[in-house]
What we know:
Chain A has nine helices and two strands. Chain A is mainly alpha-helical. Chain A folds into two domains: 1-115 and 217-241, no CATH class; 116-210, no CATH class. Chain A is flat and about 70 Å long. Chain B is an alpha/beta fold. Chain B has a single domain, classed as P-loop containing nucleotide triphosphate hydrolases (Rossmann fold, 3-Layer(aba) Sandwich). Chain B has seven helices and ten strands. Chain B has helices at 44-51, 74-78, 97-107, 112-125, 141-153, 171-186, 198-204; strands at 4-11, 21-28, 33-38, 59-64, 67-68, 81-84, 159-163, 190-194, 207-212, 215-218. In chain B, the strands form two sheets. Chain B has a six-stranded mixed β-sheet, with helices on both faces. Chain B has a four-stranded antiparallel β-sheet with strand order 2-1-4-5, with helices on one face. The longest helix of chain B has 16 residues, at 171-186. The chains are: A mainly alpha, B alpha/beta.
Amino acid sequence: MSNLDPRTKIVIILCLSTLAVFLNSPRPLLLLFISTLAVLAFFRINFFRIMFRFKKLLPVLLAMLIIQSIFTPGGQVLLTLGGINVLTSNGVSSALCVLFRMLIFFGSAMIIVTSSSKDYILALVQLKVPYEIAFMVMVAFRFLPVFKEEINDTLVSIQLRGVELKKIAWGKKIKFYTHFLTPLLSSVMIKAYQLSISMEARAFRVYRRRTYLRFLKYSVLDYLVTGFFLIATIAVLGVVF
Amino acid sequence: MGFIDLHNVYYRYPGQSRFVLNGVNLSISKEGVTAVTGANGSGKTTFSKLLAGILTPTKGWVKLNGQFLTSLTLAQIGRQIGYVFQDPEKQLFCETVEEEIGFGLRNLGLPLDQVALKVQEIMEYFELTRYSQSFPLSLSAGEKRRLAIAAVFALEPELLVLDEPTTGLDPYRKKLLGDYIEKMVASKRGVVIISHDHKFIARHATRLIRLQDGQFAEG
């Protein structure tokens, strides 16, 4: 499956994400999540091992689920505190929907790593996306780890200057992060500007017409997989609406 | 026992098979200026990050004042060790130069009038006063480096780790930096400099360590 055309992979990602957006109850979303896991297994991607790396996001996810549960009224009351309905069946259902949706988004996005960025640029260009935009999208993806490292270093620097980040209460922590968002975004903007100058200086877009050594070709398997996913997505959406 | 002790320290980055540091044993005292040199990619920055507790050894241990670094938080380490990154942009996160220098001082709980005085003094020394209300990331490369160093100097740490501190500094600013380092040494504070700037090292270092194949050689 990893040898599939990048365009096929884009179709798979779009189909899974679209369904995750439009399905609105936990059971179908759970089925879709299981299907996503099956797709990932075909691509030999270990979903749970990758998700383990994001374990630090677990408290945020839990907080989101709790908030979702509390603020979605209706249905059977499951927990009452001081006369207030804290947990309802609709709340739990809504939280589960958010959880499955996020897992499906993460899972489908993992398919991206099975092809190189050059292949995606080529794929997007052959899908008639202007080369400049295709290239920028891929550069943005490549910069994500750099951006992550930069945030990490900034957080280290903040702590080395006396801030006990782990001991700060969540409310204060959020305020703290918001405070550093502006300089961080400015840093990214400055980097993007420098990158654009560097690219222009190295003849990016110097000729209007661009030629390519490689040309991606759809195989029979690509047609089958694309067809299967498109038909399945349309069918499911047809049933939902 | 030194101020910082490294015992049989090995380090390799996650997902890589090569060890950047191979069983390093080293003591660094709070006196004098220790210079660390070595070729590009020899692990100098990795070593400096291990000293400041930013990285944790794959094997072996690092102790700060007799305490395992792993038992201390970065904020606790920061009270004793000041770290200036190779890329100063990584440690500039406030909205003004003044705020950047005062950030650590406020966190240490100093009264605001003392913070203001110290910030003023540091800004004057590093000739940053006219940029006091400027956005740190809009400064020139040399100014950003000066600011990054100034923000850490303000905390008066017991040991200062400077990763390539002279990059982008003109000779006059290099001299200012050197003078400040000498001032720190005179007040019984140590400095570790990771650098390729042989002239600067020759002028200020009291101990020279060369990093080669993940191990240190003195001299």
